Amino acid sequence: MKENKKIIGAVLFFLVFIACFHASSSIAMQPNLTSIKQGDAKEESPGHNITSGVTRQIGQQQANAAASKAPPESHNLLIWSAKGNILSVTNTGLFTSYLQKEIKLLPDNMPGTLEKPFILPGETLIVYGVCKHHLPTQTSVLIEAMAKDGTDLGSKIIPVSR
Predict the structure, then answer these.
(1) Do the Cβ atoms of 78 and 89 come closer than 8 Å?
(2) pLDDT for the residue 33
(3) Distance between terminal CA atoms of the chain?
(4) How big is the CA angle at 48 (ends 44 and 54), to the nearest 5 degrees?
(5) N or C: where does the chain have the smaller number of CB atoms within 10 Å of the terminal CB?
(6) 3-state SS of 27-84?
(7) What integer pLDDT is reported at residue 73 of this predicted model?
(8) Cα separation, 65 vs 9, whole angstroms
(9) pTM for the full predicted model
(10) 72-161: which CATH number, 2.60.40.10, 3.30.1330.90, 3.40.50.1860, 3.40.980.10?
């Protein structure tokens, strides 16, 4: 199971690397611009319309800026779910959510541990170390939210869905 996760992780890393490389190489190959006015772009050599290239470059820059400014509330979009004797968390947001690996289940202050201190958009992680006999009586999770740079964003209590 862990080998499958490692393989999937390696494949995802490779795909992200290729996407980033492709985006950076297409931006680097943009022609030199002398002026841009209301969507018009003029190339130094006449006869070529590169408006779509400029739009693509600006769109990529906006996407990069948005990714670097992930909202600190992204942990509010985590869905904590208990099914059977397994507790899991899913990131339903558009940004990576960062938090301490150690969590507490309430009301019993029961500890649990995440595999890593971040959850990618759309990713689901299993919480390890949870007592299967006490899990049915736990109603919420206490997390320590963090920013990407490791800055503490404070504690949050999030309900557990069933």
Answers:
(1) yes
(2) 39
(3) 25
(4) 80
(5) N
(6) HHCCCCEEEEECCEEEECCCCCCCHHHHHHHHHHHHHHHHHHCCCHHHHHHEEEEEEC
(7) 75
(8) 25
(9) 0.57
(10) 2.60.40.10
> Domain limits of the chain?
2-68, 72-161
What would the two tokens of residue 136 be?
A: 């049915």
Query: How much is the pLDDT for 49?
Result: 46
Give 9 or 28, the one with higher predicted confidence.
9
Confidence of residue 47 (pLDDT cuts 50, 70, 90): very low
Summarised one tens digit per residue, pLDDT across range 69-116 is 556 678 889 999 999 999 999 999 999 999 999 999 999 999 999 999
Task: Count CA atoms within 13 Å of residue 27 on its CB side.
Answer: 14
Structure tokens at 124: 């689901």
| Per-residue H/E/C for 80-142 | EEEECCEEEEEECCCCCEEECCEEEEECCCEEEECCCCEECCCCEEECECCCCCCHHHCCEEE
Give the count of beta carbons closer than 10 Å to the beta carbon of residue 141.
Answer: 22
